[in-house]
Amino acid sequence: MARPISNDDEDPKTKDSGETSIPFWRDAVGTWNPMSSGIEAWASTCGKTTAALTSEWFDFLNRRCREEVALFLRLASCHSSDESWRAFAEFWQKAIDDYRQEFAELSRLGSEAMTASMTDRCGVLGEPTKGNSARAPVS
């Protein structure tokens, strides 16, 4: 059960200034600071990844919508059923290739982001890097 805050909890350093603080709160924030900075870096990486993936996906959808409009324009100019079938066949072959390339690109972006988020605080093999003191140095 949390204890009520009273004037007895004031920090002696701030007592004369009229400010009040809770000493145990200051200690708790200091204890969690390394973890919170790691979470902040990871969240930043995740945000950048989400933005990159979203941008790539919407750019792809824009390109595909243009291809669909072009298909209808091409179909409107066809003079025979053979031309129409050829237009459809080429459209679907290009669509399959475009989707394959797009999923490969999204996978690459996701993989790079995952690698970056895992190596922000640790090296590739889990060895400490700058700012990461979670592991003792290997002798």
State which percent range the strand residues make up: under 5%
Shape: rod-shaped
* Topology, number of strands: 0
Low-pLDDT residue spans: 123-129, 132-137
- The number of helical runs is 3
Q: Structural class per helix/strand content?
A: mainly alpha
For the largest beta-sheet, the strand count, sense and barrel status come to: none
Radius of gyration: 29 Å
pLDDT averaged over residues: 76
Q: SSE order in H/E notation?
A: HHH
> Considering DSSP H and I runs of 4 or more, what fraction of the residues is helical?
55-70%
* Ends distance: 46 Å
Summary tags:
rod-shaped; 139 residues; single chain; mainly alpha; disordered C terminus; 3 helices
Question: What would your notes on this structure say?
Answer:
There is one protein chain. By secondary structure, the protein is mostly helical. Helix content is 70%, strand content 0%. The protein is built from three helices and no strands. The protein has helices at 12-15, 23-76, 81-119. It starts with 11 loop residues before the first helix and ends in a 20-residue tail after the last helix.
A few lines on this structure:
With 139 residues, the chain is mainly alpha-helical. It has helices spanning 12-15, 23-76, 81-119.
What's the helix and strand layout?
Elements: H1 12-15, H2 23-76, H3 81-119
Helix pairs in contact: 2-3
